[in-house]
Amino acid sequence: MKPLDLNTFAQKIDYVRRASMGVPKTFQIDLSVALTDQKFDISGNLFYVWQSPDQTSYVEIKVNNTREPAIQYIAQTGLNTPFERLYITTPAGQTGNMTIIYATEAPELMTLIDNRAVTAANLADILEQLRGDVTPENWGEVTVGVAAVELLAANANRKACWIDSDPDNTGNIYLGFDNTVTTRAGGNNWFKCLTPGMGWGVDDYRGAIYAIATAANQYAGVGEW
pTM for this structure? Predict the structure, then answer.
């Protein structure tokens, strides 16, 4: 077969007038409906996940045959290969619609232009982290004594926290990451010592925080948001 002579723009325009080449098509996947190797009788030379509810939603696609390996595709990923059918699996527990774009023939006549950064879908999460919450996750007063107590439990939603030693305290409060925390006199398992009136906070740790004091009935104000 004689190769296509598409060296000039005029030649390409004349060619697409005679055949629908390089024109992309789309179809949608309802992610709330669980599918297993659902056959889609479509053909082309590339497919691409154009839109998705979020950056973590995905489908698994096998190309041409169910014996082929299933590959996960999320937003802004795809494959450039000839195919005559796709087998798509949608894992349970997802919601929303995913739009998949595919193109038939003449790859030299079409190039996908997608200027979205891969991280663009996560910008809302980054903005939420920078802004912080409008309501606190947890706050109040905790009595700390000579036995370790948990000031804050692990919290995956925490963006920041603050711990303050009451100015009226008569002893020091030592902070640690589990119930083996000690005072300096009792050992070396601590990371921060709060003298009366002193505070400490962090904005990049979401695990538990424990405390122990050098005297009974010491008070710590705690908050997380």
Answer: 0.52
